[in-house]
# Entry
Amino acid sequence: MKTLYVEGNTLLHRLSARVKLAALAMASMLLFVADSPVLLAPAAIAAAALYGTLGLGWRNSWQRLRAILLTIVIVSAFMLVINDPGAAATGFFRLTALAFFAATITATTSTGDFIATISSAARPLERTGLGRAADIGLAIGLVIRFVPDVLGRYQAIRDAHRARGLKPSALTLGVPLIILTLRNADEIAAAIDARGIRGQNWDKDQR
Amino acid sequence: MDIRFEQAEARFEGRTILHPLTLCLFERRIGVIGLNGSGKTTFARMINGLVMPASGRVTVNGFDTAKEGDRVRAIAGFIFQNPQNQIILPILKEDIALGLQSRKLPKQEIAAKVETVLARFGIGHLAERRVHELSGGELQLAALASVLVSEPDILIMDEPTNQLDLKNRSLVERTVERLGETVIVISHDLDLIAGFDRVLLFHEGRLAADGAPAETIGRYREICSP
Amino acid sequence: MSTRDLVLAALFAAIIVALGLVPPIILGFIPVPITAQSLGVMLAGVVLGAKRGGFAVLLVLVLVAIGLPVLSGGRGGLATFASPTAGYLVGWFFAAVVAGYLSERFVDRSQSGIVQITGFFLAALLGGVVVDHGLGIIWLAFGTGTGLSTAFLGDLAFVPGDVLKAMIAALAGRAVMVGYPLLPQRV
# Structure
């Protein structure tokens, strides 16, 4: 699967994921405290400029941000009609700024860095017995690994419909897709345990 | 290497799948045959503690599968029927390294071990490939590599040539022949086990024959003929 | 969490991601294409129960956050959480947990088919429509400053489609329960 990360060696690429995420959290708080278009418009422009320094090009940037920018525009237009122009402008600039900041971090942080950061942030959770930090990386890997399999299975079920002259429906596609996919869980789980991937003592919480 | 079953019995939801069995294995090449549902896969899974005995016990090199599962699984690797389900991460190299993760080795050492094991099966060129793009034969070799990277002494394989074409089948057969480890193979592929040291035949949850390949396979044919 | 639970959640997350990549499904009785991903979220709860279903959806959200374009239309990345509609996305997690909890609590294998389907429908409706839309409206109202009534009005347009999805989730959930039961039972 192609990620939205873009290879590069800018200052933003070199900053640790932890610092970037903390900065984003800080920025979003400030953006919500600032309640006037006079403050938020420059923030949005600054965020867009920061994103611009990545040099992704207009087309690529538009593809990445089309869905969210359109949603912001629609909601702001809605507000302009029902609420008042001030509120519409505030909402528009605030969310646009946030979207550009967030997209900048996404483009400059690799999935590996993210997973490492999430795993280390989750380590305190281990003491609560909710799960193991290393399981997060394993689970993410499993999802990415099995998406193509699920798609292949979906295609096969669709073809089976066609071959038998049946009209595909959400039900007749979905049910076999779920059952055929989940049926592999036992063997995949056994393989993980047999290879000792989750380390010691996994069998203690098998019950 | 020594595997012992002492009156070991397997039950599932109240049904007996494998009747109490006492047996000692020490040969280097062991085949396991039998009809579908005869208990042979359960037998194999009991060796590395994926199935625990309901009564009696199973030990591998003296370690009890019920008490020291982690030790047993480090000694006995298991290769599943469907290699598709054995490979867990999206990129082959990452997946092979996963088996070493819990050992907390330095990064370079892991990389070196991964490279060695891939080269051993002639699939070094596939290291960076996406797992779902591999062919059936490549997947089977990858599954072998994923288990052997953690250096088990015993390798248990559940129908390794089941879904392969003739070319890949002979590739896997040759690979199995060359393995230095003790190998226990469950198979319907009678050619594969014909040259083995010992073959076990399971029938209706019991050990029906045990000995040299020729006689056990002969007994199997008798059971199958109407 | 046992290895099997972890794998089940990961496989369901893979199903939800895949549902965003396949062409929209046309329902038999209404000529409107639906995006199947939110249907997948309801199904995660109904099929796997609260814990595993919730974890499956959480995994999808983590994939979005770390920059994988796994939402329908190739959307993804942290910016998705800055969208005016991000409340619906975050609400997915709570939707799966609530639908899962209610399914575990009120549906069991000994009931008749119609009771099971009704139970699953109410579970999916409460999780996927009440909880998810509730969070969506709150985020839209306060995150963007539209105010509750405006947000509620905008939300209404999407209610019929999601009620329909709850129906499909109920039928599919019951079919999976018959074919390959996984739902934990809570007494």
